[in-house]
Amino acid sequence: MPQSERLLVLVRHGQSEWNLKNLFTGWRDPDLTPLGVEEAMNAGKRLKARGLQFDVTFTSVLTRAQHTLALMLTELGQTGLPESRDQALNERDYGDLCGLNKDDARKKWGEEQVHLWRRSYDVQPPGGESLKDTVARALPYYCQNILPAVLGGKRVLVAAHGNSLRALVMVLDRLTPQTIPSMELATGVPLVYRLNPDSTVASKDVLTA
Description:
Elements: E1 7-12, H1 17-20, H2 34-49, E2 56-59, H3 63-76, E3 83-85, H4 102-109, H5 111-119, H6 131-151, E4 156-160, H7 162-172, E5 191-195, E6 201-206
Parallel strand pairs: 1-4, 2-3, 2-4
Antiparallel strand pairs: 1-5, 5-6
């Protein structure tokens, strides 16, 4: 099988209404802003400019990721592809922080505590998930559903969220619990991976504007 067939593209959804308002979003379900729509369309255009086509898609059960996927596929001229939706790919659940402004949260709990909740690997916010918890649900889904499709020759497009995708990138890029918290994923920027037959990364390309 040619290397070009083991294609995996990960895209964080475009800017959401709550990203714009600087709110903790988690499993809440706001849609994209006009800028987010533009980011998703531009992601599709960049993929098309590289001549990339897909066979199957994966996304979360949240509107902002599904909308991003639909906009990319429209730009690619590939609407109607098989689409798997699963909450395993949902954003990290911020629990009691959901809906709160991040600056207000810092005033209430302090800069250090909020930074710990947002950027540590295994510290849970009140009633929510740590990044470690998110990895624990996203990674098995990747291993059982996404990776077999890629290794089987399917060209796979995944539209999801900053933290659920960081769980996948952690494995692909061989990051550690110490290095993953500082890694940021920009909205609407495709990460194009080509995998080796043993599931390691042959190449990675970040399609920035």
